[in-house]
Amino acid sequence: PAIDAKALNDYGYTGRGVRVAVVDSGIDGNHPEFAGRTGLGTNFAESSVTAWGDCANSVGAGCGHGTHVAGIIGANRDGTNSRGVAYDATLYSYRIGNSTNATPVGSNDSDKLTAIFNQHASDQIKVSNNSWGSDSTTADAIDPNANPSYWFWDANIGTLAAAQSAVRTGTIFVWATGNSGQPQPSEQVGWGLYDSTLKPQWLAVMAVEPDSDTGGYKETSFSNRCGVAKSICLAAPGYEIYSAESGATGLVEKSGTSMAAPHVSGVLATMAQAFPSLTSPQLVERLKVTAGYDNLSGKTGQTLATSGLSVMQDIFGYGLINAQRAMSRIGIWVLPMYSNYYSGTTSLSDANLRMPSGLSTVTQSAMRNAYYTVFDSFDGAGFSVRGNEYFSQGRPQRQVSMGYGATVTGSGASTKVQQQIREVAGAGTPLRLYAAQNKSSGLGGGLGFWGDKVFLLPRLSRSSEQAWATSSEVQWLTRGGQISVFMNTAEQGTIQEHGVGYSAGIGNLLSWYGSIGRSRKTGTEFALRLAGNDHDLASDVLKLGLRVPIGANLEFFGFHSVDRLASRAADAANWGIKKGAYQASAIGLEWVLNKTDRFSFGFFMPEQLTSGQASVVVPKDRQADGTVVWERRSFDLEGDSVPGLMMAGRRDLGEFYGVRPIARFQAQTNPAKRQQLESVSVEIDVAF
Q1: Which residues contact 381 (CB under 8 A, 6 or more apart)?
Q2: What is the predicted pLDDT for the residue at 76?
Q3: pLDDT > 70? residue 116
Q4: Alpha-carbon span 218 to 294, nearest angstrom
Q5: What is the CA radius of gyration of the chain?
Q6: What is the 8-class DSSP label of residue 197?
Q7: C-alpha–C-alpha distance, residues 609 and 275, integer Å
Q8: pLDDT higher than 80, residue 144
Q9: The pLDDT value given to residue 395
Q10: How far apart are CA 376 and CA 387, in angstroms?
């Protein structure tokens, strides 16, 4: 609980695949806590003896030390005894104690130290735990007020080169500060303190214990402090720690900074698994900046509030580690803008990533419940977030308001009405010309068949929402029916849709309409990002209609459209679509009082993507050099089955002072939001 290890284990971070060296007295491979482990490592004390093996606690000084330390790092999670912080880590035993004692390699034994450091590079060790050291402290050997070369490296250039080689391959060295109760850490801590090559991957760990008075943690009486090594020092639990007992099958309790260091090593192993793109210095920095002094006190009562930051740093360095904070976001979520992460990023909130227009609630739910990779602006660490955080909530998915078009009279009729339709020429003749204007596009063929009801048909609010679309239709009366040729153009004059239709009737029983067409327009229906991502959308369009008179003033109508999209590949800026189709339908009743006054109500299926597959290219990870690894995610499209409700009406209010205002109203629900009213409007048209 002191370091929140369980939280990171529960998220699946267990050190799997990460190599951890335990430089110590050995590891008792016969202990059940290490059952099934491969005996990897090297014996630097007795080359003829296996590295996995430890003298029993009762045999000699320090025996069982390495087994205890290894258990803290990586004891099996098997439901018995204890488990290690990184219980799936790959353990290497770098044995520096012989069969009768655990006397470590001394600071003067440069040949063995050189071999140990070189072995780290050969084995590509990620984390090296060193719970051993000399009684002399860092302050005994260096002057913290000067900038000397450390005498050990001056005397042992080859050993320094070996240590630097290990660091270059990525090894992070974790050192216990020592148990002499001194204000400075052990000598070995200083080996990395004044070498700029080693320092970013060299850590010291002092020990804390539970504080029964405060419920927090306090400095142990035996621990050496961080002192001059405060810039590379952390605190971790080191008092009465239960772990594997060498020569037995159970646990034994030990205290010391030797027990504190493996807590840090274990957390680093889980971090290395979770953040494979982070460099070793970045992992160290993340662990340091997420440590803290909350509920932490010195052995004579020093706290951050009473003694200040400088005193706490001298004792605890960066403070007590916290695994959960180390595995959590530090900065803000960002996304790469280019093929390399370091070439530029944008915050997730500014990216405005959007889903395609017209998705059903089923498909939206699938996309929002999926997980996507984002990066921490602090160091580029990769995390997973759900789609409801990944995609912008502001994506317009609304249907165009379904209501009657404006009908105006007078020679100076305004064209700045939201929607209008009229028979321009040819009334009562074999040749008729219809024209329509709308602020939401999507009219197409059928103007002559549907008349004012064309605005009662469901369609998405497209990218041309703020531009005027115009439609024209030429209709020829033929024997038994009418043939129409239609064209829909955008404000700038480009043709968006064109095609041919045919309508006919069976006496006074019913009238039907069908059309086929080709649509090609510029839009943002499949834009992943908001800015500047218009793209061509090509599709084949089929529309069907039915009108059935019921009495003198009542008519049933039905409508269905299928808009089959041409496939397009996904890229970093746009969604891809394969075999996709928009569909929409409506049924209703219209009550017609006269040429102007009418009322309709009915059901409609919103225009939505009902089939096909949408794909998107998103970042999956990044490499250590910043190269972004992309992945293609695909989602099957399916439509909803619950219809919405609509009603609309138009009423001539009579003549007032020489003008005839006409009232229009409409209301429709959103079936995706439990039939909440999505659009309600009342408008008054007046011709001046």
Answers
A1: 274, 275, 277, 278, 282, 286, 375
A2: 96
A3: yes
A4: 11
A5: 38
A6: T
A7: 37
A8: no
A9: 52
A10: 17
Counting Cβ atoms within 10 Å, is residue 312 exposed (0-12), middle (13-18) or buried (19+)? Answer: buried
CA distance 50 to 435: 92
**Tens of pLDDT, residues 545-562:** 999 999 889 999 999 999
| 3-class DSSP state of 305 | helix
Task: Phi first, then psi: give them for residue 553, nearest 5 degrees.
Answer: -125, 5
Please say whether the dihedral angle defined by the alpha carbons of residues 189, 265, 27 and 276, taken in this order, is positive or negative.
Answer: negative
Site of tokens 């970093």: 572
Per-residue pLDDT at 410: 42
Cα(443)–Cα(471) distance, rounded to whole angstroms? 7
Least confident of 205-219, 365-379, 597-611, 658-672: 658-672
Task: Compute the Cα dihedral for 90, 96, 102, 104 and give only its sign.
Answer: negative
For the chain, counts of helices (H) and of strands (E):
16, 29
If pLDDT is split at 50, 70 and 90, which confidence band does 146 have? very low
Q: Which two tokens stand for residue 16?
A: 């799997």
Tokens of 209: 């214990």
Q: What is the DSSP letter of 326?
A: H
Reading the block at residue 170, the tokens are: 């990525």
- How far apart are the C-alpha atoms of 448 and 425, rounded to whole Å? 12
Cβ-in-10-Å burial (0-12, 13-18, 19+) of 187 comes to: buried
489 DSSP β-pair partners: 470, 495
Burial 539-562, CB ≥16 within 10 A → b, else e? bebbbbbbbbeeeeeebebebbbb
* pLDDT tens profile 285-300: 999 999 999 999 999 9
Q: Among candidates 447, 443, 450, 499, which has minimal Cα distance to 469?
A: 443
What are the tens digits of pLDDT across the range 164-197?
A: 999 999 999 999 999 999 999 998 998 898 889 9
The arithmetic mean of pLDDT across residues 432-455, rounded, is 82
Q: Which helix (H) or strand (E) holds 116?
A: helix 110-123
Axis-axis angle for helices 257-274, 280-289 (nearest 10): 120
Token pair, residue 134, equals 């000399």
Residue 254 phi/psi, 5-degree rounding, is: -140, 155
- Cα(559)–Cα(545) distance, integer angstroms: 5
Per the prediction, the chain carries an average pLDDT of 89
pTM: 0.85
CB 622 within 8 A of CB 635: no
CA 76, 78, 84, 86 dihedral sign is: positive
